[in-house]
Amino acid sequence: MQTTFRARTLIAALGLAGAAFIGTAAQAQIKIAMVIPTTGALTQYGDMVKEGATTAVEMTNAAGGINGKKIELVAVDDACEPKQGPVAANRVVNSKIGYVIGPVCSGASIAAAPIYNNEGVVVATPSATSPALTDGKNFHFIFRTIGRDDQQGPSAAKFIIEHAKPKKVAVLHDKQSYGQGIATAVRDDLKKAKVEVALFEGINAGDSDYSAVITKLKSAGVDFVYFGGYHPEMGLLLRQAAEQGLKVKMMGPEGVGNPEVNAIAGPAVEGMLVTLPADFSANEKNAAISKAFKDAKRNPSGAFQMTSFAAAQAIIAGIKAAGDNPAKVADWLHANTVDTVLGPVSWNKQGDLKSFDFQVFQWHKDGSKTPAVK
């Protein structure tokens, strides 16, 4: 039997370790947690999610809040680490918060999801793409506002097959839930299309020297490299490959689509390919929202700002319709379509979006990106 929160005004636990409060505490009557990395190597992704959620909440509060109640965001750090995921989840539960935007990373999300679900906390993750988060779990309270790796992987593979047309491909990953999952999806689709995958290998996240794997890439004679993982490792692979004279096109998922990759890779980042959510900030229907981001000196066109905004929209819509009761909000989300910056979104029984638009972009050394297919 699942334990759920009864409808109530949510009151912040004083002295909550690892949490920061955003908003006007005296006015806030509904609390939503942002479970994001505020420490560690992946804080930039937390910043993206924070920008999206904060903009959505500011706009909602300015329009009167949820049924007259103001919203307060509570930032809880999980460092994007699986071992910290349950710790962060327990902080949310102990502070009696019934709604979460996040977690950001798949590994931390997978580790924390049973706690959120068992305790009746509605979770809308804007960035965790691993199918393992939801497959076979029968979770009622876990939702995504981003597609899965088995939607993103085929988008990458399709581009490789139809546009890059390499002779030999190497597929690398960081041995973690997200990176290995997306790399496996890409490898499998390439093999189905009879594209030779000469190397499928994991590297250790956090290492500073990938010369051994670059030597293997040179020996295998590959002309294209797909890497499943995050920007710190991708940046090093790009830089060290250039330093060692390996001239190949490299591609990664949305986890490498971070301006910080430029600082690591240097000029070698030019032309990196990356699958990202479509640039929803460019949609004319979102012009006012994009302006709100820019007026607050926030970037609406990053990987997760708009998916985070949509996560906030989903939770807010659920509370408006069903009341401040997480169990009823979860029921409502499963049964309804929500208008968001992503367009109308709805979920299947396990909380995954029924469809999502991933696109391929080319990354540039000034940190900008352009569509890889015109």
Automatic annotation (TrEMBL):
<protein>
    <submittedName>
        <fullName>High-affinity branched-chain amino acid ABC transporter substrate-binding protein</fullName>
    </submittedName>
</protein>
<keyword id="KW-0029">Amino-acid transport</keyword>
<feature type="domain" description="Leucine-binding protein">
    <location>
        <begin position="29"/>
        <end position="367"/>
    </location>
</feature>
<comment type="similarity">
    <text>Belongs to the leucine-binding protein family.</text>
</comment>
<dbReference type="Pfam" id="PF13458">
    <property type="entry name" value="Peripla_BP_6"/>
</dbReference>
<dbReference type="InterPro" id="IPR000709">
    <property type="entry name" value="Leu_Ile_Val-bd"/>
</dbReference>
<feature type="signal peptide">
    <location>
        <begin position="1"/>
        <end position="28"/>
    </location>
</feature>
<keyword id="KW-0732">Signal</keyword>
<dbReference type="InterPro" id="IPR028081">
    <property type="entry name" value="Leu-bd"/>
</dbReference>
<dbReference type="GO" id="GO:0006865">
    <property type="term" value="P:amino acid transport"/>
</dbReference>
<dbReference type="InterPro" id="IPR028082">
    <property type="entry name" value="Peripla_BP_I"/>
</dbReference>
<keyword id="KW-0813">Transport</keyword>
